[in-house]
Amino acid sequence: MCYPVHPLTRLNLGVALWWAGEPSAARVMFEVFHTPKKPSDTQPEPAEGKEVLVDELLRIHAYAGLGITLFATSQHARALGILEAVANSAFADAYFFLAFGFIRLAMKKPRDAGHSFAKACNLEKFNMEIRFLIGGIYLLFSSANKAISFYDVVIKERDRTFGAPALLNRAVGHAQLNLIPTALKDIQLVQRLYPEFSKRYRMQVDSLDFQLRVKARKQRAEET
After folding, report:
1. Is pLDDT of 82 > 90?
2. What's the domain of life for this entry (predicted)?
3. pLDDT class for 46, splitting at 50, 70, 90?
């Protein structure tokens, strides 16, 4: 006997399959939310508005998952169509716009990506994690100048959670721009302002510091 799968279970299955490296199977889970219901499937609206809200949030998050899995399976045009629909809804949150911006960058649409990231920041004005993640996305796509501008905001706020990794990543950004002395100053700031972080991630901090010092020596040797 076949039992119906609860929508939340289906959504979680889709996410799990995505992380297991099965985007095609994940897409099947998300696709159900996108399939219009038959008249016989429709039920009267529940009395509690909260239940309606939860169902709508599930649907929106499933749409976002469907868009991302479609993109991963090279159905780019359809992926953008689904994601555009989510972006125009009232339920799209900051983390959705992060994913949307990432995909737009991957499709070489930097201006559109910038609009998505701006929406994410507007929705979460005081959430430094959003800016930190945007910086990481730009760094991943070798847009060091843009990445640094987002890291600067996090560093200025002295955020307890993201301040130290933002400094470390800003050093990587400066290194991408071949600004080695500036990158080394960032490493020194990490070690001075965040000793606990430097101790916990000593291998990463020391490795980057070593690489930068080697590059600095090569630069000096080339100048002489």
Report:
1. no
2. Eukaryota
3. very low
Q: Which of 76, 93, 125 is the last residue of a domain?
A: 125
Same domain, 76 and 4: yes
* Domain identity same for 119 and 133: no
Q: What is the Cα 174 distance to its own chain's centre? A: 21
In single-letter form, the type of residue at position 187 comes to I
120 & 21 share domain: yes
The more confidently predicted of residues 12 and 214 is: 214
- Quickly list H helices, 35-179: 49-72, 76-87, 94-106, 110-123, 128-140, 144-156, 163-176
Determine, yes or no, domain membership for 92: yes
Residues 142 and 196 in one domain: yes
Which among 141, 120, 116, 140 has a CA at the least distance from the CA of 129? 120
Rounded to two decimals, the pTM is: 0.73
Distance CA 120, CA 125 (A): 8
Structural contact between residues 99 and 106, judged by C-beta atoms closer than 8 angstroms: no
The rounded distance, in Å, linking the Cα atoms of 2 and 212 is: 60
- Residue 163 near residue 193, CB atoms below 8 Å: yes
